[in-house]
Give the backbone structure.
Amino acid sequence: MSADLGDLTAQVSLTPYQALGIPLALVGAVFLSIGAQLQSRGVAKVEHRLGAAHSGMSVRQVLALLGRPSWVMGTAMLGLAIVFQLTSLKIAPLLVVQPLGAVALVVTALVNARVTGRRLTGRVKRSIAICVGGIGLFATVAAFTATESAITTPQLVTVLVLLLVVGALLGGAFVLLRRRRSALFYIIGAGVLYGFVATLAKVVLNRITAGEFDWLSVVCLVMLLAAGALGGYFVQNAYSSGSPDLVIAGLTVVDPIIAVTIGIVVLGEAATAPAVAVVLFLLAGAVAVYGVFQLAKYQPVKKT
């Protein structure tokens, strides 16, 4: 028993350099929260001026966002959030920094409540806790069971083909559902796309570092940018039909679940994981997704 505890402690102990990943991840989460709030405000102002996007934001509305200082500032903060989060994952273990991304959900909920004059009900607080707990458990299990290895060309091609299929399915669903203004559809769609973006970003960075930037790396980069652009468009539509805390909840839950699932199923990063880990993956993912649906159901109410 004591030997097992010693092994566990050894796995999570950090060097001073690795410990820098903790504040970097927290700063990234704060930038993500504030950026989401500012982007949401920019979308609201554009819709107030040009009308609501009943079937998805038009080209005119998207271009109008570039003229909103709040949206531009929010986009810049989201860019900084990505830089901080990628850096934290580069220098610190996944177990330590990945769950910290859920802090963005808590910060966003508090900021949104303060800005809009809305209070967080007990149901909303419980929904947020469920989201954070579920994704924290999911990332923790992944950190203890996943093993990283070099990505082969067939595996990378599989990821790219899956992204093409997913992109086609989301595009078709958008055509069918765009008039319903479903915040959950846009949020889940963006989360799925960003999960692929995270995977491809890791591949591209690793190939650049190893000096192996070939034609397949270029394809990855193009697909990454395309998925990121479509995901960003979905996020802007989500802001027009849902609150910032709901958007962040979906992204901080769906994004890592998709990224880790790709690592497990396609890249074989959990080939040596015990059966109990698979059960915990499914349980944690279900809990986190349930929290998102609960948060969508129990939106904050206006103060009286």
User: Anything to note?
Assistant: The chain has 13 helices and two strands.
